[in-house]
Design goal:
Strands 1, 2, 3 and 4 form a four-stranded parallel sheet that branches. The mean pLDDT is 92. The chain is an alpha/beta fold. The two termini are 20 Å apart. It contains six helices and four strands, in the order αβαβααβαβα.
Length: 164
């Protein structure tokens, strides 16, 4: 998913939708989710599952998460950018994406809040956090996974009333 054409195709064929979001406010993808649901119902498939895939990283504090995630993310996105014709990523752009956009990088409460907002806005019933984007020490990745599983997910479930 990601373009209206791919969303229409998935809905017509009765396929679930997965949207990978690399930049901008994830809520702007809500119309694509609505389109998928409309087309899948019109084609007799009912409402199909929708998943959102986001880059993210969880640490004890939001500043620590940004500090740890930035170097690898910067290298990876600049490599992808060279391949796709994008400009170099600046730290300011990264920080804005972490604050207001599609990077779910922060402390458990911050990441949980962004997940909840996205699920409520899109009605997605699956959320995947890609926790590694570029090289990072294994111990830091394991800590992020631990915080995601022990802090973020319980907060999300609590705020959504046990749903999802």
């Amino acid at each position: 998913g990601g373009t209206p054409q791919s969303v229409l195709r998935a809905g017509t064929l009765g396929l679930p939708l997965a949207i990978a979001i690399l930049g901008g406010d994830p809520i702007r993808f809500s119309p694509l989710v609505d389109l998928h649901r409309k087309v899948s119902v019109e084609n007799g498939h009912g409402i199909l599952p929708v998943g959102i895939n986001i880059h993210g990283f969880v640490a004890d504090t939001s500043q620590k998460a940004r500090d740890l995630f930035w170097p690898g993310h910067n290298r990876a996105m600049n490599q992808i950018g060279r391949e796709r014709g994008w400009g170099q990523m600046s730290y300011e752009h990264f920080a804005n994406e972490a604050q207001n956009g599609s990077l779910y990088v922060g402390d458990p409460e911050t990441v949980a809040g962004k997940i909840i907002e996205t699920i409520q806005a899109t009605g997605a019933n699956r959320f995947d956090l890609k926790y590694s984007n570029g090289p990072m020490p294994h111990s830091q990745l394991m800590k992020s996974i631990e915080l995601y599983g022990t802090k973020v997910i319980p907060l999300v479930k609590e705020m959504l009333g046990g749903a999802n």
